[in-house]
Design brief:
This protein is α+β, with helices and mostly antiparallel strands and 305 residues long. The chain has 9 helices and 14 strands. β1 and β2 form a beta hairpin. It starts with 7 loop residues before the first helix and ends in a 5-residue tail after the last strand.
Length: 305
Amino acid sequence: MLEPQTSIKDAFASVQSSSSAFAVVPFENSTYGTVTCTLDLLVDRESKSPDLLVCGELYLPVHHCLIGHPSKRRSANLSQEHAWDDDDQMQANCNPGRSSKMMKSLQHISIVYSHPAAFGQCELFLSLYLKGVKQQEVSSTSRAAEIVREEGPSSRSAAISSSLAADVHGLKLLAESVQDKDDNSTRFFVLKNGKSNPSGLAPSPSPPSETNEDRWKTLISFTLPQHPSGTLVDSLQVFKNHGLNLTGINSRPSLEHPWHYIFLIEVQGKREGSDGSAMNQAVKELETQTKEWKWLGSWRDCVEL
């Protein structure tokens, strides 16, 4: 059974408490980059979700719509492709592949609700057609649609959300495909509770018997001693020494003191039960280079599937 959550934080809490077996949360977008809220929850500075592990990933195309209540003024339907002027076309040339469809007049809109990541994925559309309109950040794109519905048909609000959200909340499509890039996609992590569900694996098109380490990824967080120079380089070198490829690195403030960070790295490979695996040997060496480290899960790589 699927159970929606109000926020990414609530999704983490639901799995930590074992109320849910899995949670699906956005991790990074091909246009906007990493979802900061998810990063902060993964580094878990306050140890509110110590048992959570990443056990899978999903890559999904994301097509945003502007939804809301159409203007009550009589206006021509704009369902055809919007005819851009020269200035619009010049800006669009910097973002090939964009093909927004205007469905209704937008002149009545004075505020747009959405998640920060959705705003970041739709910057060109907002700057061209809703320049100067207030952007109000909320916990999710679905919550944005809910707010617009609650404000009623007489409101001048709209939401960047999905066509499904428009259907669910009885709203109209004001514009379709408002994301900056037509190939916009988001990678989602599947989370499990490693204590109450230690053997749980997210559904995957990869064969269950697949053991090739190149087809797996591992997420690790670590902090470094503050003063010695070269410690970050030395820590990353550990994985090269064991023939493991780094596929991503992020950092967040540790909040222990200014300019001290928690690093999160993704590595091709899988943490095995035996000490002989390359990943196990690498994390054993990593322990000698870092102040502290934490394994945050291993899962099948789905990037090419």
